[in-house]
């Protein structure tokens, strides 16, 4: 489930405290240290068959400069009832977890530059515009009602803070036709689950 890296905060904190080789070089003209930057690019997507549906999946695809991308996909549990929005939020969380997991494996402490792309305008707006307002309102919307899918939003907010503490983090909306890998991963996960249920 999406909480598989819930202990990443402690690991990253310990990593920061460890003595490691310097990760900076000298500016070619000013002889000033330059912090190395490790860049990550991920595309995420979530899908649901029915609304709410009996089956839903989320996926994150991490791209490399060379080689094939790494794809992580998972089915959503049946409770609470899966929806497209829950699937999209879990996809964001998987992407955040993948970025933190990769940072933990690095042999140095570079500054991160992470971009997470999603074709959900709602989820991107949540991560870039609404979090601060909701937090200030006690996680209630403009009419005073509890925010939907608050469990996922709080987890995404926590991971969001972790990543921002390590460098730069951006959430970027892209049209669906530019998110084919993550979309395909979701559909394959749901197709396989339906096929297994029929046997």
Please report the number of helical segments. Answer: 5
**Largest sheet geometry:** 5 strands, mixed
Query: How would you spell out the order of helices and strands?
Result: HEEEEEHEHHEH
CATH fold assignment: Nucleotidyltransferase, domain 5
Helices and strands in order:
Blueprint: H1 8-17, E1 24-26, E2 33-35, E3 37-50, E4 53-63, E5 70-75, H2 84-105, E6 111-118, H3 121-136, H4 150-164, E7 167-173, H5 180-197
Parallel strand pairs: 3-6, 6-7
Antiparallel strand pairs: 1-2, 3-4, 4-5
Describe the structure.
The chain has 199 residues and is an alpha/beta fold. It has a single domain, classed as Ribonuclease H-like superfamily/Ribonuclease H (Nucleotidyltransferase, domain 5, 2-Layer Sandwich). Helix content is 41%, strand content 26%. The protein is built from five helices and seven strands, in the order αβββββαβααβα. It has helices at residues 8-17, 84-105, 121-136, 150-164, 180-197; strands spanning 24-26, 33-35, 37-50, 53-63, 70-75, 111-118, 167-173. Strands 5-4-3-6-7 form a five-stranded mixed beta sheet, sandwiched between helices. A two-stranded antiparallel ribbon has the order 1-2. It is globular and about 50 Å long.
